[in-house]
Amino acid sequence: MGYAMSRLEIESNLCNEADTIHEDCSSQLTKNPLKNVDNEISQMIKLKSLPHQLLGRVGPGRPKLPVSPVKMLVGRESNYSGLGRFSSADCCHLLSRYLPVNGPWLIDQMASRAYVSQFSDDGSLFVAGFQGSHIRIYNVDDGWKVQKNILARSLRWTITDTSLSPNQRYLVYASMSPLVHIVNVGSAETESLANVTDIHDGLDFSSNDDGGYSFGIFSVRFSTDGRELVAGSSGDSIYVYDLEANKLSLRILAHTSDVNTVCFADETSHLIYSGSDDTFCKVWDRRCLIAKGKPAGVLMGHLEGITYIDSRGDGRYFISNGKDQSIKLWDIRKMSSNVTCNPGYRSYEWDYRWMDYPPQAKDLKHICDQSVATYRGHSVLRTLIRCYFSPAFRKGERAEGGKIDKSSTQVACLSILTEALRYYTGQKYIYTGSHNACVYIYDLVSGAKVAALKHHKSPVRDCSWHPFQTMLVSSSWDGDVVKWGFPGSSEIKNKANSSGFLKFGASATSDNWKA
């Protein structure tokens, strides 16, 4: 659309609003449960994150959770559990207490709005997409060096989404156009100018029954095997593109309004989740689509359009961000075969692109809400703000006991953290960007808002938690890409004083060092 539409535009009233809200970010945090999840998922999370019962009985006093790092260290060294090491649940319990809230540290600053920011599956690469036609791929392991600087082809308005192939050789990017472009990011050149230094092949998602209507792609994802793409569009449809055959293999007129988000439910790619401005989440089973031609089920609960869906990866649970200013947790076993009730027409006029959410709508509830839990406290305005589960347990790895320098309690605790890094949070948390320029982290089971990351001056559309490090990266319409973390082994030397203890700045995690 030209430079005039892609320049960084930060309205003064938005900046003032963001600055004002920053003053209240910390005060909005609460440890009081907003809504307990009375569901199988809460039991699953407990099994993955509760430490061995004997570790809680180390030392004097009654057993209580969470167990302190010092007690866990003593229990492991004394082999209280009988395992001679930490179990995966022990590691998850420990590390899930240390959230990536320190910082931020600036990675990059661009003169246009950031719309997309995502780690690769193995965390070695990071992709950021900007309104000003640029997509940058950073090498995380090489000091965040720009490995690929892509200048998008045929961009309409902005980069709406990107997806990196499982083998990390190809990247696809979408905009408000039926064409999705694919780029070989494994080539040697750093600069990727469309059809000059690199080929940006256009994959045409239009079909004969579109009636010549030009639509935009809001969401695109690779399948786990890298052979297919799934996409959602402003044409109310879901598309599946066969990359090997280089053609569109499936189009579903899925909703009655824009399909803002799609994703595969699990590694099999049989199930697809979709979310739309018609307020419904739908589940599609590709194995029976030809015979039935309709969704496997519908989930109702949001009062406004859905901006993003993230699957837990188990083919059962997913979360959705909605323009009704809430995240909802869903269990597809609760879905209906069709729409059984509709909240009806609202009694107020509202457009999330330029209006605040009406005060009279904040207490409204869907009469047929099928969600498992609802999380509130962030703001979903102006753009399709995204939400995610925190990283899952990494299968096939285990923590080994290691030699610990006990000259400092804090250094010993850091040693446990290093050991636990490979197990991570067990998807105990969910996190989201927000219009008020913050990133919020919620406890999945209790619903409590446990952290608010404040730095940006404009809406945070996207953010990404590293798959196995205590690191989170946020990007914003202010053009900043920043990382948040917890002091790791690489920072210990710089923070240790002559007595061997670490000097930590004031942060939301500093109290966790207390035994």
From TrEMBL:
Protein name per UniProt: LEC14B homolog
Residue windows of the WD repeats: 252-285, 299-340, 453-494
GO BP terms: proteasome-mediated ubiquitin-dependent protein catabolic process
UniProt keyword terms in alphabetical order: Repeat, WD repeat
Pfam families for this protein: WD40 (PF00400)
Keyword Repeat belongs to the record: yes
Family: Belongs to the WD repeat LEC14B family.
Any one Gene Ontology cellular component term annotated for this protein: Cul4-RING E3 ubiquitin ligase complex
Native species: Senna tora
Recorded superkingdom: Eukaryota
Keyword Mitochondrion belongs to the record: no
